[in-house]
């Protein structure tokens, strides 16, 4: 069974500082990996995803993540935090569960606050 | 382009009352559809998924049920709500590995 661990339920950074949100996964097959962002009382918006190919994935809003198979990690980074980045971030892993169905398993989320 | 609609956005219901949340998808055929619940501090939990009309798989035993009467319609229901049913409910669709989420329904059971 697949699982996702997000280290740190709450991360606080200063505006302009590096953002690093950690995600480790377990999966019995090569995984598809995702990062989603959620603003208060809204749905989830896809930031980026890794399926195959290049292990460094670039997403929206200046975020990127690197798939490291040896470390079973998919950490999310952004070089310089902006106030508008304050939100909750979810890492997720997807495995094919039969036919065309892919079950998405989420981490518990990391709340990012950005201080002025 | 594909869009997903979910309503209502917020709902306050008394304990013991019924529930019906609706989700529809446009611009795609035969999507896989999902209902997730997000409770405070507990992340997102998959409740139900459907790979076709009338096909429902339940992930956790609970007070809720789901139905898929049409290809692009997915309904979450309850006959009698419990306080523990409060949460943020999200519908999603996928054709392959990527999911697209609706805007969610905030349900408060009082």
Largest sheet of chain A: 6 strands, mixed
Overall spatial form of chain A? globular
Write the H/E string of chain A, N to C: EEEEEEEEEEE
Distance between the termini of chain B: 38 Å
Average pLDDT reading of chain A: 90
Poorly predicted ranges of chain A: none
Greatest interface: A-B, 26 and 25 residues
Outline type of chain B:
globular
The average pLDDT value of chain B, as a whole number, equals 90
Number of helices of chain B: 0
Task: Profile the largest sheet of chain B.
Answer: 7 strands, mixed
| Helix proportion range of chain A | under 10%
Number of helices of chain A: 0
Task: Summarize this entry quickly.
Chain A has strands spanning 3-7, 10-14, 19-26, 32-38, 44-50, 56-58, 64-68, 73-78, 87-98, 101-106, 110-115. Chain A has 116 residues and is mainly beta.
Provide keyphrases for this structure.
heterodimer, A: 116 residues, mainly beta, 5-stranded antiparallel β-sheet, 11 strands, 0% helix, globular, B: 110 residues, 7-stranded mixed β-sheet, 4-stranded antiparallel β-sheet
Characterise this structure.
With 116 residues, chain A is mainly beta. Helix content of chain A is 0%, strand content 60%. Chain A has no helices and eleven strands. In chain A, the strands form two sheets. In chain A, strands 2, 4, 5, 9, 10 and 11 form a six-stranded mixed β-sheet that branches. In chain A, strands 1-3-8-7-6 form a five-stranded antiparallel β-sheet, with no helix packed on it. In chain A, a hairpin with a 4-residue loop joins strand 7 and strand 8. Chain A starts with a strand and ends with a strand. Chain B is mostly beta strands and 110 residues long. Helix content of chain B is 0%, strand content 59%. Chain B has strands at residues 3-7, 10-13, 19-26, 32-38, 44-52, 55-58, 65-70, 73-78, 87-94, 99-101, 105-109. In chain B, strands 2, 4, 5, 6, 9, 10 and 11 form a seven-stranded mixed β-sheet that branches. In chain B, a hairpin with a 4-residue loop joins strand 9 and strand 10 (99-101). The termini of chain B are far apart. The model of chain B has no long low-confidence stretch (mean pLDDT 90). Chains A and B meet through strand 4, strand 5, strand 9 and strand 10 of A and strand 5, strand 9 and strand 10 of B.
């Amino acid at each position: 069974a697949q699982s996702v661990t997000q280290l740190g339920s709450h991360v606080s950074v200063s505006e302009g500082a590096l953002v690093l949100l950690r995600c480790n996964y377990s999966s019995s097959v090569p995984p598809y990996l995702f990062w989603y962002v959620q603003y208060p009382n809204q749905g989830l918006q896809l930031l980026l995803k890794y399926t195959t190919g290049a292990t460094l994935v670039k997403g929206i809003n200046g975020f990127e993540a690197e798939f490291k198979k040896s470390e079973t990690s998919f950490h999310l980074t952004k070089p310089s935090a902006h106030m508008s980045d304050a939100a909750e971030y979810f890492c997720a892993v997807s495995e094919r569960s039969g036919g065309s169905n892919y079950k998405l398993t989420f981490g518990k989320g990391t709340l990012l606050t950005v201080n002025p | 382009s594909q869009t997903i609609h979910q309503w209502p956005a917020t709902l306050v219901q008394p304990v013991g009352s019924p529930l019906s949340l609706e989700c529809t998808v446009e611009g795609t055929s035969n999507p896989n559809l999902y209902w997730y619940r997000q409770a405070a501090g507990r992340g997102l939990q998959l409740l139900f998924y459907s790979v076709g009309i009338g096909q429902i798989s339940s992930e956790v035993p609970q007070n809720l049920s789901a139905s898929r009467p049409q290809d692009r319609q997915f309904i979450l229901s309850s006959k009698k709500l419990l306080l523990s049913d409060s949460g943020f409910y999200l519908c999603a669709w996928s054709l392959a590995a990527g999911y697209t989420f609706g805007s969610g329904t905030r349900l408060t059971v009082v």
